[in-house]
Hints:
Layout: E1 4-10, E2 14-20, E3 26-32, E4 37-42, E5 50-56, H1 58-83, E6 88-93, H2 110-114, E7 117-123, E8 126-129, E9 142-147, H3 149-160
Amino acid sequence: MGVRIEKIELPGIGVRHDVLTSSGRRLSVVSHRGGERDLAVYDLDDPDACRESIVLSDDEAAALADLLGRSITFSQLSGLTSHTAGVFTEQLLLPADSPYVNRPLGDTKTRTRTGVSIVAIVRGRNVIASPPPAFILEPGDTIVAVGTRDGLASLGRLLSDDTR
């Protein structure tokens, strides 16, 4: 299903981007010329009547964009589970005392040791999809992995205690 987005120029104000939901709701982000942003929710019965407007700081706008983007990425990865029996997606936090902190991802030999695939790393607000073996792991990284329940459990143990 496609998403309908409309761009509306607001003379003297800035630009409004509207997302029209499948239920007929209109959500907008108004980007003012001065850099401010508002999140607006429109009335269901009157799509031209703004029901509520929320002013967002730069940090709030970035956090909301990050949260929405990340939730879509994770829901798409999690959707693999519903289509493939026995395959699960899990997010594992790399402990600060992991033997793999400040080492390349390839040093974990995750796929060989556990049969699990690491499909992304989340670091702060960034999602690194398909990280290469040379990618350096840092404490607090969230590792997004796909595999069997046993394989994911093995990965959790591997990341917290080097079982070479």
